[in-house]
Amino acid sequence: MSAAPPDPAPADIVPPDWQRWSATKPSVLRPLTGGLTNKSYLLVADGERLVIRRNSAISASLDLNRTAEHEALLRADRGGLCAPLVYCDPDHRYLVTRYIEGGSWHSERPGALRQLAQLLRNIHTLPAIDTQLDIEAKAASYWRSIDRSTALYPALHALRQEIPQHIAAAGALGDGHCLCHNDLLKANLIVADDGNLYAIDWEYAAMGDPFYDLAVIVEEYGLNEGQQNLLLTEYLGLPVTPGHWKRLDHCRVIYGYLAVLWYAVQWCSGAMTEPRIGAEISQRIRDLSTLSSATV
């Protein structure tokens, strides 16, 4: 397993074509933490704070569609749902947005789940883009980058056999596709100082099942049953039915599967080398196997 690349020197963070989006050469203030795929930095230019995201060197292995991301960002920007877009590099090496002053979203904050449900409704009513989230194709792409000799491979392979039934069941329960963010992790939700909630990092955006977005939130935030019920009720605007619960659970399994493959790609590529990552992947596989068995 190769070592992760070192952080670039400050002089290498600002791209040479900065004149395309700034009248004065930007200065680097500091790195921004939280992102797992890319490197982001806080800049100042023309008296404004900006964020530059340098895209991952293994974007292809992670099956990232930067063109789809740009299309989704344009729609989200017009809807006031994301960090305002400043510049998207045509060669997809980097992205520049305005910096949102604020903090992380927390499910325990009063009204937080209601606010998040509204953000999801707004995202899911954005105009369509041309890219679909094809679960099987994305999983196949991940598998091509996973080393068969890794100790994680047997458990991952066993899990692989269980997923088609969940994809089929979620599809049968679904009611159409819409534009989804597909990656609403803790680092990708920001509550601005003015109280508004924004979604950032749209690199996994695609047309898909809106319950997949809900599943990401349930899994990544560890929402309990009461919180799940509140989120679903606020999102749907009607009582939650057994069919809704089944659809959510199948999508939770699907998301968990893609997430564990994503971590395995990072592990096998050397992008993540900490021993805890290997342990986390193993734990995710065990948890996912339990959830899959319980979801019938």
UniProtKB/TrEMBL annotation:
<protein>
    <submittedName>
        <fullName>Phosphotransferase</fullName>
    </submittedName>
</protein>
<dbReference type="Pfam" id="PF01636">
    <property type="entry name" value="APH"/>
</dbReference>
<dbReference type="InterPro" id="IPR052077">
    <property type="entry name" value="CcrZ_PhaseVar_Mediator"/>
</dbReference>
<dbReference type="InterPro" id="IPR002575">
    <property type="entry name" value="Aminoglycoside_PTrfase"/>
</dbReference>
<feature type="domain" description="Aminoglycoside phosphotransferase">
    <location>
        <begin position="29"/>
        <end position="222"/>
    </location>
</feature>
<dbReference type="InterPro" id="IPR011009">
    <property type="entry name" value="Kinase-like_dom_sf"/>
</dbReference>
